[in-house]
């Protein structure tokens, strides 16, 4: 889709935001949340908030990152956090540095910790943009089941008023959007960490907002990911000229190549260990206990995520071997 078309659409659909809707109006019925959420400035235009390492319900659900690109012509947000309450809090932090309208939200992928805040931005009149593959998540029974579980485990911040939001625009190829004096280079990555992923390069700041294809300072969560394609994405990622990287989880990295290599190393090593076991028809539990995981054991979320990751990769490699 041409960038000029998207830019015109953004201007039209954000009219309600430009007419004076405020975050307070959008969040009038949203449960307040008492949580530490400082806004970090990364470059002239780019800010982000950083969740803590942990499982989905740790830190009142604030475990993932969200970013904002602030210009005189409006704000673009990348990812919406894990509850309407967190999204409202994020907007309150943004209002400390800008009163410009929030024109769009770019969703790097459809996982619960990145999308449950979308309704707050939708109610402000922002346009929601997401990668192809989002529908595989929303159409699956697991999406409603996960929401029901979070209405219990993250009550009152996720509750009966929390809804799943579909995007207004779907990206399936590299696309550029102009916003004020910046260009958002949206890179469609296909099914990697999720059923569909995208990353956003902000120019001229040269900040890459990667979503969950990069986990910094913690063990990644692989779930049912296509780790083979995920590896290929990381190996082909051109980080030339990138000055900072904001991952889906963890602190922003001033050395993007190192951040990419750490996630790549984790995926590659874990796949190699599990592939060897599958080739030799070694049962998972035996293979897991025999492998040397010491290089990752001190990372946050290792105990919570790593064994599950390895098992998911083992099963997927079994299916690959069987040609399924």
From TrEMBL:
Annotated InterPro entries: Metallo-B-lactamas, NDM-1-like, RibonucZ/Hydroxyglut_hydro
Q: What residues does the Metallo-beta-lactamase domain cover?
A: 63-249
Give start-end of the signal peptide: 1-28
Highest taxon in the source lineage: Bacteria
Q: Does the keyword Signal apply?
A: yes
What keywords were assigned to this record? Signal
PANTHER family of this UniProt entry?
Answer: BETA LACTAMASE (PTHR42951:SF20), METALLO-BETA-LACTAMASE DOMAIN-CONTAINING (PTHR42951)
* UniProt protein name: Metallo-beta-lactamase domain-containing protein
